[in-house]
């Protein structure tokens, strides 16, 4: 059974239809890459999956672990195991990184009817995860993302992912704005989590991230629909040829 | 042309009653003088510049009587949550049963105006006289004119108070007015922290016209923290006036959450040089509350610094006012002044008026001010929700963090935590999406 099953998904933003019939199946442990030109609906797909307000599903279904995702609020989806790594992580003034992580972690435990974690135990756990991503204690003591560089913000997203251990991680343009060193760190963090229990949906414009995180499946999204699907070689083909052939199909 | 009827001075009728109070003849003279001054300046109206954003019309047209002797209990869930010695005033009068003055240590003394001996009267007379000449403050004169009591706190030279002192002013009764008066005299090199909690009984609609005056001796250190949590139907108009000598430090913070109409006016006169003065605050308003913070900082001598950080959150049709004036005299070279007011509006109908004002006559100074208005961004809330935190908790976390930023200015750590608790409780009780 698929972990995530998207069928004929149509969605509008501000009354404009952006997604026009998406079909996508992601199995447990699979890594899927969705590539496409700017404005093709890639980010809309990630927000629709995460449950952002203002992104309205007008047709179709999204099943996650057999549950209908559309009826769940953003926080419930997160606690069910959907994680969105933001393209532009937001600065959260006044909320300390460590506190934020603990709140999120405990929210999930409460959702699952489990006991909250001991603060010291949690601290140790986070530190071990932060180490892999080369993140200092100081970064965890600061307000979330405030004053962080672009690379630090992206690493912070991956740290949150590593701590929350989602069943499905959606990485929205995680490679954008990263230099090569940061890209490697982020990719290492992602690969660390890779296992048969963790699936990923990597949304990207460029192929380069896929050099570090090898996908099982690659899809081309253009004009609100998946135009082509294939293996990882499709990414290389796109890198060589660009998205020109898909923009032709607009008419 | 018909003659305009002469506008009656609000509360004038009550002043005569006040004179027959237990303070006796001595207060009658004081009251007469205060009435003259009050009448000369008049009641602040819409054309009074310093009251431009806060209308006292409803108080002026209301029917109030002088508060009599009321008993009350301390509303423990409304005062600043802190265990320390207490001085309790009910309708402006010291209530010894509710206070625990026996816990006071050595070098701190408390005197009630009701109890003073004849030989002390000259001292108080001079003290009130020195206040009278101070500017355009009609409500201070009204306070003096209708006094039922005043409490003086004295900290002798060089003494350090370990525990803070909690002054609790309780308003009890409908349609009454009272005038809490606190005088704080801090000796040279002394150190003290004290708290004022202004609270009221259930839904009492009263008018509290409060005055606190402080004298900070050379090199003294004073923390002065106030919680305004008066009954939601009441009006709270208060003036804090601090005169600060050489090298002293004054840390003032006001948390305003109560009353329907409130004004927290703080005037700091930095007489000495090398003074460190902080006038900070936070305000949380919902429903139709009106919360005014007005500050005046006067740099009279060289090399002093002042800092002001105010932050507010306003929901529903609540309205906030911030007026901050910094006056730097020609002698006050090397003055360092900073002022910031930030407000977050949670509703389209909430409003904040910010009026910063710098008046600088010295040329070698550093003064800056700023004001911002913002709202809680959906993007931020979504970010927290996408991590599993529910919407209501997310809002509470974000707004709490916003306000914490101002509360963090409080130098006394225990009191800082207490104020934090007050803010969290407010968020729990008032913050829900309509």
Summarize the structure.
Chain A has 251 residues and is α/β, with parallel strands linked by helices. In chain A, 39% of the residues lie in helices and 26% in strands.
Task: Tell me what the structure shows.
The complex is a heterodimer of chains A (251) and B (434). Chain A has 10 helices and 10 strands. With 251 residues, chain A is α/β, with parallel strands linked by helices. In chain A, strands 6-7-8-3-9-10 form a 6-stranded mixed sheet, with helices on both faces. A 4-stranded antiparallel sheet of chain A has the order 2-1-4-5. In chain A, α2 (74-80) packs across α3 and α6 (150-164) packs parallel to α7 (180-193). The N and C termini of chain A lie far apart (36 Å). By secondary structure, chain B is of the alpha/beta class. Chain B has one domain (12-376). In chain B, 22% of the residues lie in helices and 37% in strands. Chain B has helices at residues 12-19, 24-41, 57-61, 118-132, 138-145, 378-385, 391-407, 413-430, and strands at residues 65-66, 86-90, 93-94, 108-112, 151-155, 165-171, 176-178, 181-186, 191-200, 206-216, 221-229, 235-244, 249-256, 261-270, 276-285, 290-299, 305-314, 319-328, 336-345, 351-360, 366-374. In chain B, the strands form 2 sheets. In chain B, strands 1, 4, 5, 7, 8, 10, 12, 14, 16, 18 and 20 form an 11-stranded mixed sheet that branches. A 10-stranded mixed sheet of chain B has the order 3-2-6-9-11-13-15-17-19-21, with helices on one face. In chain B, β2 (86-90) and β3 (93-94) form a beta hairpin. In chain B, α2 (24-41) packs parallel to α4, α2 runs antiparallel to α5 and α7 runs antiparallel to α8 (413-430). The model of chain B has no long low-confidence stretch (mean pLDDT 93).
């Amino acid at each position: 059974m698929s972990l995530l099953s998207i069928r004929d998904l149509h969605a509008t933003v501000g009354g404009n239809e952006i997604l026009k019939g998406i079909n996508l199946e992601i199995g447990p442990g699979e890594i899927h890459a969705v590539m496409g030109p700017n404005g093709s609906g890639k980010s809309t797909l990630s927000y629709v999956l995460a449950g952002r307000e203002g992104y309205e599903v007008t047709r179709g279904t999204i099943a996650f672990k057999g549950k209908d995702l559309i009826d769940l609020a953003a926080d419930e989806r997160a606690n069910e195991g959907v994680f969105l790594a933001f393209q532009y992580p937001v600065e959260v003034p006044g909320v300390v990184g460590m506190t934020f992580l603990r709140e999120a972690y405990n929210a999930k435990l409460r959702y699952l009817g489990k006991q909250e974690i001991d603060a010291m135990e949690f601290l140790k756990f986070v530190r071990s995860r932060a180490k892999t991503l080369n993140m200092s204690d100081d970064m965890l003591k600061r307000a979330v993302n405030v004053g962080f560089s672009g690379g630090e913000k992206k690493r912070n997203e991956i740290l949150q992912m590593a701590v929350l251990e989602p069943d499905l991680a959606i990485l929205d343009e995680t490679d954008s704005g990263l230099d090569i060193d940061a890209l490697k760190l982020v990719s290492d963090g992602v690969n660390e989590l890779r296992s048969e229990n963790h699936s990923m949906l990597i949304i990207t414009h460029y192929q380069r991230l896929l050099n570090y995180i090898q996908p099982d499946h690659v899809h081309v999204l253009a004009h609100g629909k998946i135009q082509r699907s294939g293996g990882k070689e499709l990414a290389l083909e796109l890198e060589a040829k660009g998205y020109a052939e898909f923009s032709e199909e607009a008419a | 042309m018909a003659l305009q009827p002469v506008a009656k001075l609000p509360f004038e009728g009550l002043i005569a009653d006040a004179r027959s109070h237990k303070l006796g003849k001595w207060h009658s003279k004081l009251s007469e003088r205060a009435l003259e001054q009050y009448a000369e300046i008049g009641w602040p109206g819409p054309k009074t510049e310093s009251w431009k954003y806060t209308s006292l019309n409803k108080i002026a047209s209301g029917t109030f009587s002088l508060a009599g002797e009321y008993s009350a209990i301390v509303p423990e869930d409304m005062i600043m949550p802190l265990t320390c010695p207490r001085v309790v005033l009910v309708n402006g009068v010291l209530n010894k049963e509710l206070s625990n003055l026996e816990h006071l240590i050595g070098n701190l003394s408390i005197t009630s105006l009701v109890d003073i001996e004849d030989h002390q009267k000259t001292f108080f007379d001079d003290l009130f006289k020195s206040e009278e000449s101070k500017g355009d403050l009609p409500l201070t004169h009204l306070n003096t004119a209708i006094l039922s009591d005043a409490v003086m706190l004295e900290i002798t030279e060089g003494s350090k108070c370990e525990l803070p002192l909690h002054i609790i002013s309780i308003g009890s009764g409908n349609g009454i007015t009272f005038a809490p008066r606190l005088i704080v005299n801090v000796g040279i090199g002394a150190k003290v922290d004290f708290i004022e909690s202004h609270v009221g009984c259930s839904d009492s609609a009263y008018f509290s016209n409060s005055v606190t005056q402080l004298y900070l001796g050379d090199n003294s250190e004073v923390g002065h923290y106030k919680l305004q949590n008066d009954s939601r139907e009441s009006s709270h108009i208060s003036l804090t006036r601090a005169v600060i000598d050489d090298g002293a430090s004054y840390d003032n913070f006001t948390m305003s959450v109560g009353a329907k109409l409130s004004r927290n006016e703080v005037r700091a006169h930095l007489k000495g040089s090398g003074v460190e003065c902080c006038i900070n605050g936070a305000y949380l308003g919902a429903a139709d509350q009106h919360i005014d913070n007005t500050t005046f900082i006067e740099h009279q001598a060289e090399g002093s610094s002042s800092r002001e950080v105010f932050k507010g959150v306003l929901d529903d049709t609540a309205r906030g006012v911030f007026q901050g004036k910094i006056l730097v005299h020609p002698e006050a070279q090397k003055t360092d002044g900073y002022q910031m007011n930030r407000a977050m509006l949670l509703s389209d109908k909430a409003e904040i008026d910010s009026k910063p004002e710098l008046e600088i006559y010295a040329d070698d100074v550093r003064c800056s001010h700023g004001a911002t208005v913002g709202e809680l961004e959906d993007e931020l809330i979504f970010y927290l929700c996408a991590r599993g935190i529910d919407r209501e908790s997310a809002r509470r976390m974000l707004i709490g963090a916003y306000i914490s930023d101002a509360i963090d200015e409080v130098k006394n750590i225990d009191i800082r935590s207490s104020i934090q608790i007050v803010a969290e409780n407010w968020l729990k009780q008032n913050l829900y999406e309509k």
